[in-house]
Fold this protein.
Amino acid sequence: MHYSDFINVSYDAVSYWKMPEGLITNLPVEKQLEMFYSSVCVDANQACVNYFGVKKKEDFIGKRYNEIAGKTDFTELLKEFIKNGYKLTDYQEQQKISDDVEYIGIDNWYGIVENDEVVSLWIISKDISALKTAEKALRESEERYRALFEYAPVGFTLTSTEGSMHAANKAICDLFGYTPENIMKISAVDLYADNIERKMHIETLEKSGFTYRREIRCIKADGSLFPALISSRILHEIRSDLFKLRKPHAQHVVMC
């Protein structure tokens, strides 16, 4: 397969640029920048043409870099390229296309240097805008989920089936009369007035995977008793960072 066949089927934007003669590596940086902007595109795939907003590949080939770039300023990227010995590896580029659209890409630049002269340049760019948008949406979703757990008016705890306490929200602390710090020092078993009830609850939970509105008797920090309804579910996978757990655990019980 010829190299042009390879780049033409690539989903990444790939282009090959011919540098103007005399781009010696010991030239002042500003002079090198000027010459880089005068480089001419020798080859490019359709993904690259689309990236720059050009309709036809024929309208792209033969153009100078400054003609293609338009008003976009690549100065900092080019300076980094020169500084790193005419190479860029996984350089993240971010551009504001419009008020609603932002481009985020990963660039890899490979300069061809012969006898201290930069003669040509390969540029490979991967558009990761959709990935970054998805990551942002995931973070926002996680923040909402964490806020729901922490500030819900219903008491939530996250414990192991053995009773180790891993997370508790404000409502459960207020309900049982513990501070957030102190409730993490006790066992979930200590919230039950009758250990037999706890044992039966866990047995049912482990058989079915969940319980719903099971009536139990609870005991507060001051020793007073009160009735409560508890619903629980086994979680086989949970991210420790989502609930700020001290360490990850294979199995948890969420109780509310």
In short: The chain is about 30% helix and 30% strand. Residues 246-254 have pLDDT under 50 and may be disordered. The beta strands are 13-18, 40-44, 87-96, 102-114, 117-127, 157-159, 165-168, 210-219, 225-235, 252-255. Residues 94 and 104 are 4 Å apart (CA to CA).
